[in-house]
Amino acid sequence: MNSTEMNNEVQTTNINFMGQRHLALALSAILILASFAGLWVKGLNFGIDFTGGTLIELSYPTPVELPELRNNLTESGFGQAIVQHFGSAEDVLIRIAPQDGLNSAQLSNQVMDALAEATEEEITLRRVEFVGPQVGDELTEDGALAVLYALFGVLIYVALRFEWRFSIGSVAALIHDVILTIGVFAWTGMQFDLTVLAAILAVIGYSLNDTIVVFDRVRENFRTMREGTPVEVTNVAVNQMLSRTIMTSATTLVVLLALFFLGGEIIHGFATALIVGVVVGTYSSTYVASAVALLLGVSKEDLMKAPKEEANNEGEEAELQRLFLEQEAKREAKEALKEMEAEKKANKKEKLNK
Amino acid sequence: MFQTQQKIITNKYPAWKYLLLIVVTVIGITYALPNLFGEDPAVQISPAKSVTFGFETQEQVAKALEEANLPVKSSVFENGRFLIRFEGTEDQLKAKSILKELLGRKAVVALNLAPSTPEILRSLGAAPMYLGLDLRGGVHFLMDVDMEVAVAKAYLRYVDEIKSVLRENKVRYLAVEMEGDTLAVKFKDLPTMEAGLAILNEKYSERFSLKPVEDTASPQVRLRFSDQTIAETQKFALQQNITTLRNRVNELAVAEPVIQQQGDRRIVVQLPGIQDTARAKEILGATATLEFRLVEERGDAYRADKTGYAPHGSIVYNFRDGRPILLKRGTIVDGENVVSASSGIDPEQGSAMVNVSLDGVGGRKMLATTKENVGNRMAVVFIERRVETVMENGVKVKKRITTKDVINAAVIRGQFGDRFQITGLDSPQEAQDLALLLRAGALAAPMEIVEERTVGPSLGQDNINQGFMSVIVGFLLVLVMMAWRYKYFGMVANVALGLNLIIIIAVLSMLQATLTLPGIAGIVLTVGMAVDANVLIFERIREELGIKGTSIQKAIHSGYEKAFVTIADANITTLLAAVVLFSFGTGPIKGFAITLSIGILTSMFTAIVGTRAVINIMYGNKRVNKLSI
Question: In this structure, are B196 and B94 located in the same domain?
Fold first, then answer.
């Protein structure tokens, strides 16, 4: 091995990440407050999946003027409809909130008829979504429950595999990620629909993945490093995982950006939620998950007694050791045998010679 | 020590692992392959109810197409259905209208896109992924069955019966009526109530819970369905509505409709390729009734059907397969009078039959009619009414459309009243269908569309193109990044990533899972995250190489070894989130959860076993001076 190669291989950084943890926790707290403020001030712009209502996407052959369209709809008795462009000047999105007496599956047909009458052009129906208010309520409830179930499942799994302080740390990180992602949607006013909810659950998955990877290394370091405070040990782990964290986040972000720019209008919200989630999730696995675990006073002893994993690892090492010794012994035996045989041969020769 | 370790860790893989990898790759490629072939425009002809196609139909169809000069690419007769492929959509559309005219109501003639998978692959059971409605265009409806009404109707069915039971036993009652969600039987005084309670208890304690109430103006017994009865009633109502919907969807001529129960009270209806959603809603929203009529045996039904003139006092009706029949004017009883209908086996003849029971009024009318008509036939007419919007002279007009079908005509063997059997049916299936139709015409619980998702064909195509594009671009970018960061090892990871993509597509094709736009998003996300396992391993190998006194072989070995635990932990937790997503998910979210879960599992295999195999070939059991990582 030449020396340049060696330099290429050893590149573990030594940045004092954990030294900034109080600052980071403060930042996180501020961001969470900002998210809540967003929810308080602006609220979420729920899609019809949750509110119920009708959504119609139409495509005109030529660009359309929205005020004109609004007039047409008002004349036909759909004054409460929200009309906007969708992706291009030719595409139009019409949203109608559920209202007494108007909330039927027939509504979309009536709107289409009204608009078709008002223009000479051939309108193409791109998409209709109608969600009854009852279904909307159910989806909201199910969605909230799903997020809770996911968090709860994680809490249990991490507590079993690691330790309760890590468990709390990882769930704190997840809640942090979910709140910040929702906060971004509140402040930007982007529509929060079913796909965004799916993205948030995927963010939980991703951020968790990231957190577990760091924790795993922290645990390993607690066992292998003979000295160092918990903060130092964690810091080493974060540094060791730094290039991995950057690389994985980068590849994930790259594909998400591809989805954002090329996947079409419908998938925009989904991609946005994931992009925010991946960025926030990467940050939180270091600064929220580990910081909270440290704050709760995780120590070397806590992990040493983590039962199964420990036994396994030791078992594995012992097994390797045993295998090694066994083979060594066999080899020695063989050699000994050879030697013996050689001796015998030599003896025989000697005898023959005699 | 250094030397001996070198000998132990040689990074050789046992032959079976290579074999496994090769087998998985071959299977993956085989089953992913059908997705590369396109689709042929085709016309699918399926028989209407109680019609079977034979050889004549096949000849008829072939002849008609030949006369119209429409070249057929291939024609298959499978599962009682025809699938005829054409070269272009123009031929397909022409053929559809010709065949529709030829076969009339005997068949459902639908446009379809048939996958043009080569015969060899098809014989292995390989088929392309099933595209969701958001990709191929179509309508998704969620219908909600009004269970409260279903249960209330079930109560009402007992009113007449309870009255007659009490009458037979000479117990006088004041009234039998619905009160809240119970059935109240009111009596004059306490002793009659006690007597009534005893009789009702004997007869109805299985189905109802009975509760005497004495402190009201008139003493009464309140009957409430047991939980089990309510559950049965609801199940029944749902089943019945599903059957009715199936029949109606046939009218829409959709190639591959999906009609499925969802939860306790919902029905999902998916109609791929339908563009006229207004008509679909009208047809699905039809109401059905029944009529029992006597058959007019004198007169020629076929002639009457042709000329349009029926003998005096009769009307021409048609069976579902188009056969005409003359029925007398004036109905005996109608659907309102039918209390229940169930299929069974006739103990005497061993053939399939349907048990029908009528309410008191219906029973008396039936008794009077059958008394005078033993030996004649009685027909059951199934009537559907709906409002349809049609274009007439360029103006949209609402039209009431009624379809009347004779679903059965049987000889009256003797005099009967409120209970009778329709016997001599061809199969248990026919009996079941008839029983369902009888019930559907009688007491269907109302349904309502509570969710609609329609995707027009142009948007569907856009979704496919954009989804495909983002997968390709995302995939290529990741390949470049990996190769740049990890050199040879990165290339190996790229091969694994490609294999991963192939396996995901193969698994989706094998499961015949539905690919949706969120599903594609799941694949894209998987591509991004799948490299994580390799990133973890490679970073670990680099790190191990940095430790003094570690040989290259040992670094590779322990890099894989140590990263494994981390990878497993990380992936299991992500899987956890995906499973929650799946169990919660409705339609679009499910698609995302499925592809994400499959992706996590396959990526673990390809990233760990796959890359290790290649790296072992490259570096294993050799003296290596440096790694390209």
Answer: no
Q: Which segments of chain B have a pLDDT < 50?
A: 1-7
Of A216, A244, A327, the CB nearest to B535: A244
Under an 8 A CB cutoff, do B463 and A258 touch? Answer: no
pLDDT over threshold 90, residue A31: yes
Domain of B85, CATH number, reads 3.30.70.260
Mind listing the pLDDT tens digit for each residue in A54-66? 888 888 888 888 8
**The predicted structure's pLDDT at residue B586:** 64
What amino acid occupies position A49? D
Do residue A327 and residue B449 have CB atoms under 8 angstroms apart? no
Q: What ranges make up the beta strands (E) of chain A?
A: 45-46, 53-59, 82-86, 88-96, 124-131, 191-192
CATH of domain A53-131: 3.30.70.3400
**Domain covering A15-44+136-304: architecture:** Up-down Bundle (1.20)
Question: Is B126 within a domain?
Answer: no
pLDDT digits (tens, 9 = 90+) for B570-623: 888 788 878 887 887 666 677 788 888 898 899 888 988 889 888 888 887 777
Identify which of B396, B379, B271, B272 has the alpha carbon closest to the alpha carbon of residue B328.
B379
Q: Boundaries of CATH 1.20.1640.10 in chain A?
A: 15-44+136-304
So what's the pLDDT on residue B11?
Answer: 76
Same-domain pairing of B521 and B397: no
The token pair that represents B29 in the structure block: 């490629």
Nearest residue to A79 via CA among A69, A64, A87: A69
Q: Which residue has the higher pLDDT, A260 or B330?
A: A260
Return the pLDDT at B481.
92
Confidence at residue A162, expressed as pLDDT on a 0 to 100 scale: 81
ipTM greater than 0.90, yes or no? no
Using an 8 Å CB-CB cutoff, list chain A residues near B518. 195, 198, 267, 270
The domain tally of chain B equals: 4
Distance of alpha carbon A165 from alpha carbon A292, whole angstroms: 8
Residue from A279, A283, A280 nearest A291 by CA = A283
Residue-range definition of the domain harbouring residue B367: 286-452
What residues of chain A lie within 8 A of the CB of B532, using their CB?
209, 244, 248, 251-252
Do residues B553 and B413 both lie within one domain?
A: no
